[in-house]
Amino acid sequence: MEILVSLNPIGIAIPFFLGLIILEVWVAKKRKADVYRLNDAMTDIASGMGDQSLGIFFNAASVAMLGAIAAWMQESSLTIAHFEQNDPWAWVLTMIGVDFCFYWYHRFCHRVNWAWATHAVHHHSEDYNLAVALRQPFLAKYFSWAFYIPVLLLGVPPLVIMGSLAFNLLYQFWIHTQLINKMGPFEWVFNTPAHHRVHHGTNPQYIDKNYAGILIIWDRMFGTFALEEERVVYGTIKPVRSWNAVWSNFVVWKELWEKSKKQKNLWDAFRLWWMPPEWDPANDPQEDLGDRGYNVSRNTQFNTYLASQVPMAGSVMAVLMLFGKSLPLWLSVLGVAWVFLTILSWGGLFEGKNWSKSLEVSKFMLPLTVASAFLVQPNTWQWAQGLIVVICIFYLGWFFIAQKKPIEPEASPS
Question: How far is CA 263 from the centre of its chain?
Fold first, then answer.
């Protein structure tokens, strides 16, 4: 178990995530269910890539902070017990404790404006599929760890908490689907696709419901449970009309800042950040909520080219997440830089931004240059460097050929 946690279970799960997404696409086509759009799905994946790549530098810090607090609690005799990392009861109790704390963390993110600004990106998609599960916020990790401090009272090691949280997030992957209907008595206790579809709905009766991670009993206990009854309308009240995953992670922060400047006094401007999203004393009637159904895809000739990059990007993420601790710092920084170049270029190409083509070329020229420099020197990793050179040249050639293809009409108007 210790080896599994140290290797980052999310990194191990990447090929399974991608495989299940492909399976869901296939099943949806067989059922003639319209649940995927390439532009939206790749934005989901891009946001998850950004979140996890930033975690390479911060996850160890969160474990260290929890470790320091755990040591202080034990020295102060504040823990109710003491468990070793390999004790099965440590994992059982921590799973339950982490799930309980996740419920309150998740509820906090929906009911406090600044926390909603970090979390909203997960709800921006107007689709609902397994890719949406990967649409994770960049900034949540910098405060979410604090919600799990109460679990330390059990006397469990911080790594057990982080491992339990990883399992909690892995569980939540499969509930992001429209292809599984209601599941009978299982739904009395556990979170399911039907319950979580409600959580992603903008229907008035569904807003701020079903915060659960694994156990739906918390929502039943604390009055936030709702059954799926009418068709769910996915997304956020104010839609985000962009495929830029970086922008999507910060747009609500910008909106909150603009709203705070419109308040009549400094006290309301301050309180706004700590109040629920619907709280607004200024009550600006001119606020434009925007239109739903954003589906811009300006460079459809790149669709196959872009889709083929998902497994490649997944492989890079898996290496960074599984082996980031043992890689030289400069290589980890270079890998994360490549990830963000990829995130920006994907969104820019879908939206037809002028800068996106230059960014796409830079995205492959960077690793091509670095790998070529090392390739000329004898070393044990020449096979990997040679593979990187071949992949980069292949994609650069494909990119320039794809530019000459005629642009196909968009699937639907934006």
Answer: 32
Tell me how far CA of residue 318 lies from CA of 14, 49, 249, 311, in angstroms.
Answer: 7, 10, 22, 10
Taking the C-alpha atoms of residue 117 and residue 109, their distance in angstroms, rounded to an integer, is 8
- For 33-87, the pLDDT digits (tens) are 999 999 999 999 999 999 999 988 888 888 889 999 999 998 999 999 999 999 9
Taking CA atoms, 30 is separated from 19, 40, 211, 232, 240, in Å, by 17, 20, 32, 22, 30
**Which 8-state DSSP code applies to residue 406?**
P
Q: Is the dihedral of CA 207, 208, 209, 211 positive or negative?
A: positive
3-state secondary structure of 215: strand
Q: Find the radius of gyration of the CA atoms of the chain.
A: 23
Among candidate residues 151, 180, 163, the one with its CA nearest the CA of residue 81: 151
The CA distance from 30 to 228, in Å, is 24
pTM for the model: 0.92
All residues at 6 or more sequence positions from 72 whose CB lies less than 8 Å from its CB, including other chains: none
* Whole-number Å distance between alpha carbons of 237 and 201: 9
Q: How far apart are CA 123 and CA 128, in angstroms?
A: 9
DSSP for 76-144 reads TT--S----TT-HHHHHHHHHHHHHHHHHHHHHHHHSHHHHHHHGGGG--SS-SHHHHT---SSTHHHH
Whole-number Å distance between alpha carbons of 225 and 3: 37
Sign of CA dihedral 233, 239, 245, 250: negative
CA distances to 64, 86, 149, 378 from 72, rounded to whole Å, are 12, 22, 12, 50
Taking only the tens place, the pLDDT of each residue in 283-321 is 766 556 667 778 887 777 889 999 999 999 999 999 998
Can you tell me the distance from the alpha carbon of 115 to that of 279, in angstroms, rounded to the nearest whole number? 14
Judged by phi (left if over 0) then psi (alpha if -120 to 50, else beta), residue 210 lies in left
SS3 234: strand
